[in-house]
Amino acid sequence: MSNDIAKARSGVTITMKWIYFIILQVMLILLVVTVTYKHADKVTVVKLPPKALAQWYKPDNKRHVWLHNMFKLRREMQAVEFYAEQKDHKRLVEWGLKLNKHYLAIGEMVANWRTKLDLVTIENIQNRAESRDYPGVLTAVNTLQKSCDGCHVDYQAITAMTYRSADFSAIDVAPSIPFNMHMQTLSKQVNQIKIASEDGQSALALSSLFELKKAMNKLGQVCSNCHKQEKQTYPNEKMQKIMLNLEQNLKTGQVKQQARDLGSLAVTACATCHGTHRLAEGVKRLLAKEHTFAELLKH
After folding, report:
1. 3-state SS, residue 167
2. What is the rounded distance in angstroms from the CA atom of residue 266 to the CA atom of residue 232?
């Protein structure tokens, strides 16, 4: 009898321990949910693509292989849809085989994404194309498009930002002069012209403009490494014309016109390029940053 009572008490104790454990887990989950909700306006969740994707983009690869595979898929899906509508069996099957090949290549190139592939739908497209079920093909293509869109929402923009935006971190404009240091120098020279202009120091403003021109020409040599098709990327003809007008107005002392020319130069020579490169490079740097545990706790 005493043994039965002891066993019963032991069972109750174990049950109570499990109840306490479950209650504790629920409280922790509620705490995490509460804290997350409270900071929802300060946190953005971004899904980063697998690191294996880098091997299919420059500079790790000679070509943007992944990007071109996406272009092929988009073209092939359009062709399959078109020939299904036209009821052109021969061409439909041919394009369907191409679509199947490049769709499966996704999993071959990035193993992490194999589970994201809709293998049932891609096989369905092939089978319905072979059996001349044209409405079935169109339905399957629509389903596949929704599957593709789902991944694109998560990864398309971030992948383009990561692998297709320029990386200036390893560029030296001149020996021992990193790119970011040179850009800081340009900013100071523009401001020095503005300061000297407002204070009536035309000689200082002109000498600063001369240094700015030299620095811009050095930067232009870096720009031409990517912008190879243009005759002179930076400073272009419009920028040079503005600087010439600014120089003339600095000599004649027309302060109001000096301000207009300098403003035009800042927009044309600085803001226009920054709108494309600095914003993208800045976001790319933030995404690549590895946060410490202390930083994660802080957020």
Report:
1. coil
2. 18
CATH entry 3.30.420 includes domain 51-163: no
Among 141, 73, 83, 68, residue whose Cα is nearest residue 103: 73
pLDDT 10s digits, 46-57 = 788 999 999 999
Helix 65-86 and helix 134-163: axis angle, to 10°? 160
Residue 118 to residue 121: CA distance in whole angstroms: 6
The pTM of this model reads 0.68
- In the chain, DSSP finds a helix count (H) and a strand count (E) of 11, 2
Cα→Cα distances 57→54, 65, 153, 190, Å: 5, 6, 20, 37
Three-state secondary structure along 51-90?
A: HHHHHHCCCCCCCCHHHHHHHHHHHHHHHHHHHHHHCCHH
For residue 178, the SS3 value is strand
Contact yes or no for 248/262 (Cβ under 8 A): no
The Cα angle at residue 9 between residues 7 and 11, in degrees rounded to 5: 70
How many other C-beta atoms lie within 10 A of the C-beta of residue 235?
A: 21
